[in-house]
Every structure is written in C-alpha cells, then in structure tokens.
Design goal:
Layout (H helix, E strand, L loop, with lengths): L3 H11 L2 E6 L16 H9 L4 E5 L3 H13 L6 E4 L18 H10 L1 H22 L3 E2 L24 H17 L5 E5 L20 H8 L1 H8 L4 E4 L17 H11 L5 E3 L6 H4 L4 H11 L4 E2 L4 H14 L4 H16 L13 H12 L2 E4 L8 E7 L5 H4 L5 H8 L2 E6 L25 E7 L14 H10 L3 E8 L1 H7 L9 E4 L4 H11 L11 E2 L2
Parallel strand pairs: 1-2, 1-8, 2-3, 3-4, 5-6, 6-7, 10-11, 10-12, 11-15, 12-13, 13-14
Antiparallel strand pairs: 9-14
Amino acid sequence: MNTPASSNLRRQVAELLVLRASGHLSDHQRRYPQWELPNGTLQRLLQEGVGGVILLGGSAVELQQRTQQLQGWSSQRLLFCADVEEGVGQRFEGASWLVPPLALGRLYRGDPELAMALSERYGRCTGEQARRCGLNWVLGPVCDVNNNPANPVINVRAWGEDPSSAGALAVAFQRGLSQADVLGCAKHFPGHGDTASDSHLDLPVLPHSRERLEQVELPPFRAAIAAGIDSVMTAHLLLPELDPEQPATLSKAVLSDLLRRKMGFNGLVVTDALVMEAISARHGAAEAAVLAFDAGADLILMPADADAAIDGLCAGFNSGRLPLERLEESRQRRAHALQSIPISAPSGPIVTAADQALEAELVRHSVTIRDAVVRADAGINLVRVDSLLPSAAALSGWSPALRIPETQGFRSVVLHGEGLSPWSGQPEAPLALEGLGNGPVMLQLFLRGNPFRAGRDAQEPWAAAIQQLVTLNRLAGVVIYGSPYLWESLQPILPSGCPAAYSAGQMQEAQRQVLTALFPTSSPASGGGAFTD
C-alpha cells in the first residue's frame, strides 16, 4: 500500500517521463499501437503525474484538439513535443513540410549567408506552427555531422556534412525556434553522423578517439550550447574511447563528465526513445530508466513500460542507488524550461502565406534540373516511394508526381519497399519489365535515409535498372527525391540529353516544381494510376 511519502515520490518521478501518444483523438486511429498508449492508460498516467507527451500522426488541426485534451487530463503544465525536424507538416498533415536540413547544408557551401537566413526562417516557421498546434518543444535541431553517406538513420536530417555548416545552421534554426517561444533540442549527443547502422534496430559503435570527437562530432553541440539550447538528446551508440561498457544514453562518462562538467551544459538532458532496440534489447524498462537517470539524464523518453520505469526509479531513490538531490535538480530544470516559454492555447490557422512562400523558396534552392524536357507523349510513370513516408503528404491521387505525368499519357505504377518486388533477379536486367507494360519509362525515386530500414533501400539496384532502360531505349527521364548521395551516384550513368532532376524535398511542392520543369506543357487533370502494393 502506498504511503503519502511514497505517493509523493512517485508523482515527482513521473514528472520526468515523456510518453508516446497518437496525435489522433481516438484509440482506433492509432497508427503504432505497440508504442502509442491507449487513452485510458494515458489519462491515468497523466493524472498520476507524468509530465510530458511526444506525439505523432493526425492532422495539424486535430493536434490542436489533442494537446488540449491531454492537458485537460493533467493538473500540471505538460511538455508537448514532436520530431518535427522538417517542419510540423513532416508529421502532421496540413502544416508546412519543409526540405530536409541537409539541403541547406549544401547551399551553405556556395552561399553561407543565404543558408543561414533561410535556416533561421525555417526554425521560426517550425516553432510558430508547433505553438499554434499546442506543442511547446521541438525535438530539433539535429546536431549530428553527416560525414558518412551510408548513414541509414541521420543522412538528410543533418544540417551539414562538416562541423562548421552543421553547427552554424543548427544554431540559426534554434534562433528561429526561440523567436517563436518554443523549446529546442540538440540531438543526438555526442554525435550520430558517422554511423553505418541504425540505433532503432541495433547498437552502433563509434570507435573514434577523443581528439577526433573534438574535431568533428562535438563542435555543433558546443555551438548549440553556447547559443543557449534548451535541451540535449542522447544517442544510443557506444563510444569505446569514452565508455567501453555503456552506450552514451546510459553512460556517466558521456552525460555527466563530458556533457555536464566539461562542456558546461546546464539545461535538460533527455534520452532518445528507450523503446529502441539499442537499449530495449539489452535492458528491461525499469533498469534502462535507472541507468539513464544515474548517467545524468533528466527526462526519460518513451520507456518500454511506463509503470515499470516509474517503479524502478522509485526503488532506486528509496534504496539510495539514486540520490534524491538529482531528482530535485531534474525537476527544477524541467520547471525552468517551461517557465522560459509563455503559456499559449493552440488556436488559429496553422499555415500563413509567409509559411507557404518559405516552403516554395526552400524547394527552389534545393532543386537541380538537368538537360531536356520529357518528350514522350505516353509511357509508364514508375514511382518508387518509401512505405514510411506520410503518404497523405507525399503521395496521393492528387500528387504532382502522379498527376503531371498522367496528363501526358503516362500510366502510374507505384512501388514501395513492403509490397511486391519489381525485380527480376537478373543482375544485368534487374527490372521485370514484362510486368510493367510497353513504352518509355519515367522513373521517380523517393528515397532517403530512413530509420527502421537498416539501409535496405541503398541495396536496390537502381543503377543497373537505369542502364537496362537506356540499353532498351526506354528511359524517358529520372527524378530523385531525397538522397543527394543516390543522385550523385546515378548522374554519371545518365546519357547526355536525358531529362533528369534532383529535389532534396519529397513534398508536393517539390514534385510540382520539378515536374512542371520536365513537363512544361502539362496542365492540371485527374488521372487513373495503377498501384502495386
């Protein structure tokens, strides 16, 4: 039976948890029920003192209602956050989905002043839309330096491929968030950019020396800390030179010694999601929460079992394994962060005319059009789209990637990674063209580094497929949306005069700008597409 003292401790501990919830209002709308708690459980935990919620799914308008609903279940002010690194529309339909940060990292090479100005506007747009939806904490900027093109989890999410651009643009983004009165979060400390495995699925190892970390991984975090970043998120990766036993999220050497003492960070330290395999495959929910808090974390994000995490932390404090002074320090940091931003109820239209103009401007600066327009007047529009994309935002019956080619007589065939394979099994002729039909093939690839896929997209033989189509004189054009590394690898094999384009963004505005350039005579019309799933 709980005593008043133990009940009070439990509420204080619960403050430090951030739980996953669907952005939809109803339980039956949850897209990821294995991670998103049902409303009854959420309501109970919030009433018992849980202090934060991370949201995903639904529309931006629905999110306004959802945050009010969740706040109504709690007697304290909640932290509401989301992984909206690319604008609120990346996760919530109806808001602005902006180009990936790496597009500005590449713009920085030629025009750093313009890139900095756009990054600050990017941050302000993201922050203002987040606040209108009821969010008060943006889980960005990514401060990882993506110096490994094979990185399956960071990739285009990074603001740069070198420490200078990554740090400068992340700070500019954070400056925009501050102007919008929302909290920011530098992630994933001490740097996830040079990994070739995905911490959602496994524990990456970063074997670099302390000297190398000081040169490459740490500078963007130092810049963000100097600029007053509100919080830092940990990385689930092992750095043997700092701690040969524990990943950064669970390491005192990384969080307490390096981040707190040596780098002087006094704000909130939040774990990356503890349900990720890098942690959950090795520790139960209670022990993972205790190890993270003992290492120096303040907030426990997405424990595999919220009640077990609270019980484990309470047991740690009661036994003396965890000092009660640390609990009070973390609670004060949380309170200070919330006090630094005003209380505002979600309201009003989400997207302004200025937001729409920024989205279009960012696309213009991150599109490359190469060579001629598409000359074929009929054929096959072969679209490879990642199944993890928010389909309503990127690809629907009205998306320009389908609609514009269809106005020119192209029949759409949409492929995604979880559906039927388009491959023949022949290395020299990998596409099973007999299943597509006759005519020229317009190839559109929506591919970028994505979590949970373990780099499987990078193994698809698109170079051989393009050579197959060239040999058969059936290649009408190529568009790459997302990965600059895929675009750079395919460019050399595209024949002279082949219509081709690259867009960092995958949203409908990016599709419109690219395809109106490749199909300049197109006009809006509906068309019937064939979907392979």
